[in-house]
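Regression test attached.
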Amino acid sequence: MSSIFFRILFQISGIFALCATVLGSSARAQDEREAHRHRPQLAISAAVDPKGDLWVVGLAQDRNSLYLQRVVSGGGQTQDTSRRISLAGDKISADGENRPKLVFGDKWVVITYTQPLSRPYTGEIRMVRSEDAAATFTPPFTVHQDRQIITHRFESVILDSAGALHTFWIDKRDQERVKQERGLSHKELGKYYRGAAIYRNESKDGGKTFGPDTKVADYSCECCQIAVALDPGGKPVAMWRHVFEPNIRDHAFWSLASQSLTRATFDDWRLDACPHHGPAIAPRGEQGFHAVWFGEKEGKAAVRYGQLDLNGKPITQPRELPDLSAEHADIVASGQRVVISWRGFDGQNTHWKIWRSEDGGKSFKERTLGKSALDNDYPILISRNAREIWGLWNKADGLQIEKIN
Amino acid sequence: MGCKLKKLISSTLFTALMIVTPSLVSAKEPLPFELDSWQKLVHSSGNAAVVFTSTHCVHCPGLVADLLGDRKQRRQGYKILVVMTDGGALDLGKSPYNKADSSYFFIGNTQALRYTVNPSWRGVTPYVALISSAGGVQFYSGSPPRDSLLRWGRDSR
């Protein structure tokens, strides 16, 4: 009798153990799915206010709000408490090349971001603005006039020397129109319309009102950031990954002053995929621009540096950055000083590196600013007071800030 | 008496387990993709087309749909696996991702995970790995060319 009892007990225990194992592994997978959904979104942007203080904006841990923090003031770094900006329930894209942006005017500050909408790959460019030195912000509002549930994403924002605020974004209204007019499937669409379009608008009152949505160019890549800078006349220029016929994902350059579109790179990278890797540009005095971009040329993937004229035409042979793993480079120039920053991975750690030139980009010296084994954002550079260049690298364990002397 | 009791208790618990388990561990539930996941996939998946995707990858659903169509049309036995490499959702309504045999999501340092798959992969999506049952892997940025897919299908039978 007792042996039967123990056998029953043993079998029940076995079944309970099996249940516990299954439930345990399921719970672990569920926890990890939750972690995946709530993984830190580290993408930040930085800007300098009229007093010369350097601020960063990013997505708060609750994912429903933004934080704004002054990180450099006066002669060096500061430890200001970050300010929380509530966004009335908006979702925010703040990962990879989608990041909130920050622009200071004389008496106002605006923050923009992309809000994903109900359908995949759709979004709206949203903005909040403050007129009390970032103490309070308006509720969010949409920057563009088109309200279709389609792609309006990857915005870039810049203030020109006359005080007009320019917003550029990737927009699929023309692709949608072609698709509807011809009754095309997504697969057929590529034969009639390549990629997306670049649109822009202007606000002459610091984001209170906006001019019409204006098309800059058809056939941009769908998933890469747009680089913006000011030309010597203080007007904006933009550079983005374009889809040249038939599927060449090189870069186009557009200038508001000349209203011209120029092919700026000739890697000849033929690809039906998303590189998720937009370019960066910086003014080159009165003569043009410095540019960095990622591409595959003759089978070799690399980040390359080159110089462009005022219309975006390349005037130097591209140079590869001295790191085969380099990705997501940024560039800033001040006089003859040119600094390029990037991250690269060696199998164990991500390294934050810079390439610095004091002769206008003729020669460079490499330096490592940091390393991390944790998840990390793309390092960014910013010029402060036209004299200092600062680098910022946001990592899962905090923000690293370096003055690049 | 003891035997009947034993059978009753065992069958009750077994039935309960069978009812509860599938709802908790669906084959379609995305699984974590960690640092050792790639090697496990290569060595245990048999013939498999692995599509690495991302939130903003507009080319990815079409590619997965093409692979599903190819497999059906050619009556191939390969698995189709989808891996989300950023924080994006894999459950996208009628998305072809839902018809993949298994789906995964990156957990941890994205660069480190990419490196385990292929050190030269720079984040382009779709990024496709065609795994053969012998353990060989071919990588493609974007859709694999049709002839490569056919050759892989032939060689991996």
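Expected vs. actual: identical. Chain A has a mean pLDDT of 92.
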